[in-house]
Amino acid sequence: MQKKVIVQAIALLGCVGWSQAAFAADEANVERVVITGSNLKRTATENPSVVQVLTKKDIEHTGAVSVADLIAKVPALGSNNQVDARDGGFSKGLATASLRGLGSASTLILINGRRMSPAAYADPNAGQSTQYDLNSIPLSALERVEILKDGASAVYGSDAIGGVINFITKSNYKGGELTLQASRNQDNAFGRSGLNGVVGFGDLEENHYNAFVAFDVSQRDRTLLKDAKSSQVEQSRIMDGRLSSFYSGISGYPVFYKESKLGSGSFNKYVSADLGCNPADIRTGSTALVPMRSNDPLIGNKFCNYDGWQYEDAEGKNRSGNLLARAEFKLGADLKAFTEAAYSQSELFYDGVSRSMTGRSLTTVFPKDGAGTPFRPVLGVDHPDNPTRGTANPVPVAVAYRFVNAPGGSSNENKATRLLAGLQGTNYGWDWDSALLYNESKRHQLSNGFLYLPIVQTLMTQNVPLATIASTPGVTRNVTLDGKSSITQWDLKGSTEFGQLPGGALGLAVGTEVKQEKMNIVPDPLTVDGKIIGLVNTYSDAKRNVRSAFVELRTPFFKSFEMDFAGRYDKYDGFKSHFTPKVGAKWDVTPTFALRSTYSEGFRAPSLTQMVNGGTQYFVNNFEDKLRCNKPGSDSTDCAKSLSGIAAANKELEPETARSFTAGLIFSPTSSIDILVDYYTIRKDKEVDLLPNTAVVDNPKYADLVKRDQNPGTWLVDANGKPIPNTGPLISIATPYVNAGGTRTSGVDLELDVRNSLGDLGKLSSRLNYTYVFDYKKAAVVGDPMFDLVGTNGAISNDTTSVGELPRVRATLSTTWSYQAHNLTANVNYVSSLSMMARYSTQDDGTVGPYEQPFCQYGRPGVNPQYTKFYPDCEVHSWTTVDLAYAYSGFKNTVLSFNVANLFDSKAPYDPSYATAGYNTALHNARGRYFTVKANYKF
Question: Is the distance from CB of 851 to CB of 841 less than 8 angstroms?
Answer without folding.
Answer: yes
